[in-house]
Amino acid sequence: GDFNVPFDTGHSEASELVYLLETYGFTLLIKAATRERACIDNIFANFNHDSFVSELVDFGISDHLGQLEHNIDNKSLIRNLFRPIIQEGFIKLYNDIEIVNWIFEDSIDMNIKERFEMFFCVLEQALLKSFPEKNYLERSSKPKKNPWFDESLRLMREQLKLLSEVSKQYNRAEDLENNRRFTIQYKQAIKNAKKVANDNAINTARNPTKCMRNIINQKKGTEENCLLPQDFSKFFAQVADKPIDKIPRMTL
User: Fold this and answer.
1) Looking at 76-80, 104-108, 225-229, which range is the least confident one?
2) CA of 241: how far to CAs of 54, 133, 236, in Å?
3) Which 3-state string (H, E, C) describes 74-140?
4) What average pLDDT does range 224-248 have in this prediction?
5) pLDDT at residue 47 greater than cutoff 90
6) Is 143 exposed, middle or buried (0-12, 13-18, 19+ CB in 10 A)?
7) CA atoms in the 13 A half-sphere facing the CB of 42
8) Which domain of life is it from (predicted)?
9) Whole-number pLDDT of residue 222
10) Which of 152, 156, 163, 247 is the most buried (most CB within 10 A)?
11) The pTM is what?
């Protein structure tokens, strides 16, 4: 976490904090700079970390480096590479392109193909520099994919991300309205997809009643709040009472 005290300078507050945590069996693990030139973020562990290694990772979303502690003997961990497209990168890209000397585009010593390759190379280098590659570790055993989240929802999610970025960047009324409307459409599409998936699961289950109860319990959460069989039966036994009570009674 962000302790906001410089652990790498012998600062009195940092020393007191480390000493206090050491009295409870915790050991400081991070000793490198986590923000600019200061080590103000750290991990304290109260277990044997001989087989663990600490690592600093720049996810590109904060001015603090992320701190990771992972087991070097755990072969289930894999390293993933990604290239975050963030606003800071766009600013760097615009600035770099603005100062490029494009005189080669009019050079008579180069043919069209050579000029295009030079143009493409300039853009490629600017992009790679503005949006540097990052990495992170995760376990190879990935969680199960939601059965209701299909390709159409994935495309809608990507479109919503784009609309959200545009509305944040330009803050125009029409962009904000488009983002709001599409958000409503996306949420409704998710509800419909979940409904279809639940219907299919119930209709194809060997025990539809049990499957229905499990779906309801998953929605409700913890076991303490789970719907019991008697509650399930009671609901359907009494569900008709309210409509019946609303029927006007005949008078003689």
Assistant:
1) 225-229
2) 63, 62, 10
3) CCCEEEEEECCCCHHHHHHHHHHHHCCCHHHHHCCCCCHHHHHHHHHHHHHHHHHHHCCCEEEEEEC
4) 62
5) no
6) exposed
7) 22
8) Eukaryota
9) 46
10) 163
11) 0.38
DSSP state string for 174-232:
HHHHHHHHHHHHHHHHHHHHHHHHHHHHHHH-SSHHHHHHHHHHHHH-SGGGPPPHHHH
**Residue 182: pLDDT over 80:** yes
| Cβ neighbours, 10 Å, residue 130 | 20
Alpha-carbon distance of 225 to 222, in angstroms, equals 6
Q: How far is CA 34 from the centre of its chain?
A: 22
CA 42 to chain centre: 22
- Residue 72 corresponds to which tokens in the numbers above? 């070097």
Residue 192 pLDDT level (bands cut at 50, 70, 90)? very high
Query: Which residues make Cβ contacts (< 8 Å) with residue 186, sequence separation at least 6?
Result: 153, 156, 157, 160
Place of tokens 């012998």: 10
Angle (CA) 141-145-146 rounded to 5° is: 150
Angle at 72 between CA 28 and CA 53, to 5 degrees: 20
Across 2-22, b (16+ Cβ under 10 Å) vs e yields ebebbbbeeeeebeebbeebe
CA–CA dist 199, 147 (Å, integer): 12
Q: Is the pLDDT of residue 28 over 50?
A: yes
Whole-number Å distance between alpha carbons of 231 and 213: 10
DSSP state of 252: -
In the chain, what are the domain boundaries? Answer: 1-74, 78-142
Distance CA 30, CA 18 (A): 12
